[in-house]
Amino acid sequence: xxxxxxxxxxxxxxxxxEDSDFHDCRGCDFINGKFGTYLALYRNSFARTxxxxxxxxxxxxxxxxxxxxxxxxxxxDNFFGVYKKGAAQLYLTNRxxxxxIVNNLFLGTDPRVPGYHxxxxxxxxxxxxxxxxxxxxxxxxxxxxxxxxxxxYLGSIRMTNQYxxxxxxxxxxx
Length: 174
Description:
Strand order of the largest sheet: 1-4-7-10-13-16
Strand content: over 45%
Radius of gyration: 15 Å
Structural class: mainly beta
Order of helices and strands: EEEEEEHEEEEEEEEEE
Mean pLDDT: 89
Low-confidence stretches: none
Shape: globular
Helix content: under 10%
Number of strands: 16
């Protein structure tokens, strides 16, 4: 009944995940957690996080990658595929800094799971936490998502409105 993740990070530092193929996970995030200093995701494929039937705690939320702490994140040249019940393909929140999201492909649909639509490519920050990711650069990505969420939001990248309360020099650059 617990959350399952292909890679669960907990304060690890200096980790590179590269050239890996994550696919068809039921009831999980492919990569989840918080890291210490420096995490790199290079040339990975994150395809199809799918709902499961193993209970509400495990099956209500799947993102491709969800991180909520760390300093020095580089997400480069990855493929992000669809999810069914998650918040985003790449979800970054809470106390994080020095983030680079560069040259990734975020697909909105997948012919292997007709009817699924990745609604949001990236969520940066959350109203549920008092800290927001700082020094975020989102550069040269191809984003093909944007289906309407249950709450009515229609957009490909969601940044928390809490950025209005932090200095402009640490807000995300898109």
